[in-house]
Amino acid sequence: MKRFILSLLMCLLFFYGNAQSASDKFNIIPIPAELNQGTGHFKIDASSKIGYTNQQDKKVAELLQQHLKNTYQLKLALQKGSQGKSVIHFSSPESDTLRLRESYELSVSPGRIVVKGKEAGLYYGLQTLLQLLPEKNSKSLDIPAVSIKDQPLYAYRGLHLDVSRHMFPVSFIKKYIDYMAAYKLNNFHWHLTDDQGWRIEIKKYPRLTAVGAYREETMIGRHNQGPNYNFDGTPYGGFYTQQEIREVVAYAAAKHVNVIPELEMPGHALAALAAYPELACGDRPGPFKVAAAWGVFEDVFCAGKEQTFETLEGILDEVMELFPSSYIHIGGDESPKVRWKACAHCQKRIKEQGLKDEHELQSYFVQRMEKYLNSKGRKIIGWDEILEGGLAPNATVMSWRGESGGIAAAKQGHDVIMTAHSNGLYFDLQQSLRDQQEPLNIGGYAGLEKVYLSEPTPKGLTLTEHKYILGVQANLWTEYIATTKKVEYMLFPRLFALAEIAWSKPESKQWEKFSGERVATHLATLDKVGTTYRVPEVIGLRDTSIHAPSYTIERLQPSVKGGKIYYTIDNFDPGDTDLEYTGPVTISAAAGKERIFKAVVISPSGRKSNYITLKLSNAPAK
Ligand code: ACM
Ligand code: ZN
Fold it and tell me: What is the mean pLDDT of residues 87-103?
């Protein structure tokens, strides 16, 4: 009887354990809306076939074929239809449950994998399937049986990249888009112009790149170091040709990523003014230099001169030719009013238009650009400063200085994209609270946990106002990011958290499982393919002080699957020549003494985390 009860208990534990871990086991990011584990598995081998129903589906089928060939040297045959013993079938049926363009269903059972979805949905079904494949050099390609129904929480899931402060080759821009698409992000916000460089070829105004794409030198170190600015003395610059831009836009479209160009106006315009100084305030403005320092500059486009608008419209004509995106981002942030206050042209405009002040002049500027773009069938997005002096009638607001801009815009019935600095969505901020252990960055904290635990839709909106929140985006400003490796370092693992808050249901949030299982697994994949990323600190310990004679450190876990934990008790920074943590470690301190335990994670490829410190203090003997 005792034995029977024990077996029953074991059985219950087994089932309970399984139910608990159904979605953990699959480690999908972003976590799907619905996942049910099946029994058995599908085995991909040389006899398996990839089926499709129409030409659209065939494209996705070919992507899988390519992936299997590249990753496992397995060349599978394609076929029209789903016949056969071992088939992976892609289809886009007219089904009620797949009404949404981005939703998909994926079912894996012995002998058959079926992926259903339309357009982006089918593509996302493939992305999920790719995440279920075993790692690169696995001997057998088994996929556990599962049934997934999935759709996104938000329609807009964005990632931004500033290429003005530093630029990156087209090959890397494509890689950036690959990262987005693999995690179901669908809008690439390409920040193409700013004070420090104009990066898009405009044929009508060749000086924008001939002059505006190059700066004499670049600031080094943090820019808030007071008057002791430091420069590298090295010219820097470059731009994307129209041909390259077309190539990027087409590449992104094939991955269901829309590219939104941003052309900054009226502020952040020094590079353009260096090329065409007559577009600044006053009668004989300039000369201007492309900025070598970071920050906000007082010279902006003049809002009084007709020439400013004619030029910007000419620029936007070419931009619209290059980018099919219905959204064009016109900036609008951080535009000082100093020059406008002193400019006869701007003051005349204020008077003629019956405007109250320079804030209303900014609103006039933005509304005029909106009117032009609307007349060509496009919509504008602007940073939340476009609320000042009155919103343009059809503008979408990107809320960055916190959530208040987003709330105000939604309350006025405007669409909003949330990218709040205060929610950790500025990926140029540092990923840990330990300043000294991070590479140079803009400062402020935006760690993985902060991003993951943030809620894109702000509190304080009514349910009917929720519909104006189109989605969420993270921004990557590159003042302190000169290399592609550093872009990747700042991106990962935070991109995982972004993908999840953008796609998955908020009620599926579980920080421990996300960081300990799913992130750890995905980082192991990046580790294998040589993508740079930040290794999160060891799991199971935070910086702590404990008052006791001894303490046992239990259940530490590496933040990267397959990684190892090393520790020291001598206050040195641990490395792979130190003690390896393989189970509970007890440390002790003599009366009146301290013992410092420090632990790091080292990934399979040798990447190292910051250390976590536990300080044990033993009270002096009485
Ligand atoms: C911004 O960060 N200036 C939009
Ligand atoms: Zn002016």
Answer: 82
Short-list 146, 268, 153, 150, CA closest to 199:
268
How far, in Å, is the centroid of ligand 1 from the Cα of 142?
46
User: What is residue 225's predicted lDDT score, i.e. its pLDDT?
Assistant: 62
Is-catalytic flag, 41? no
State how far the Cα of 557 lies from the Cα of 27, in Å rounded to an integer: 17
Q: Mean per-residue pLDDT for 369-395?
A: 97
H or E segment at 566?
Answer: strand 564-568
Model pLDDT, residue 543: 94
CA 419/CA 472 separation, integer angstroms: 6
Active site residue 189: no
- Strands of 427-527 (E only): list them: 469-474
Structure pTM? 0.95
Please spell the DSSP secondary structure of 60-75, one letter per residue. Answer: HHHHHHHHHHHHH---
544-617: CATH class:
mainly beta
Within 8 A by CB and 6+ apart from 576, the residues are 564, 566, 602, 606
Mutate to test the pocket of ligand 1, among 334, 387, 418, 478 (most ligand atoms within 8 A of CB): 334
Note if 268 is an active site residue: yes
Query: Looking at domain 156-529, which CATH architecture does it have?
Result: Alpha-Beta Barrel (3.20)
User: Out of 1.10.275.10, 2.130.10.10, 3.30.379.10, 3.40.50.970, which CATH number does the structure's domain 2-150 have?
Assistant: 3.30.379.10
Residues sharing a CB contact under 8 Å with residue 558, sequence separation 6 or more, in sequence order: 520, 538, 539, 564, 565, 601, 603
> Ligand 1: residues whose CB is within 6 Å?
333-334, 383, 400
User: Which helix (H) or strand (E) covers residue 79, if one does?
Assistant: strand 77-80
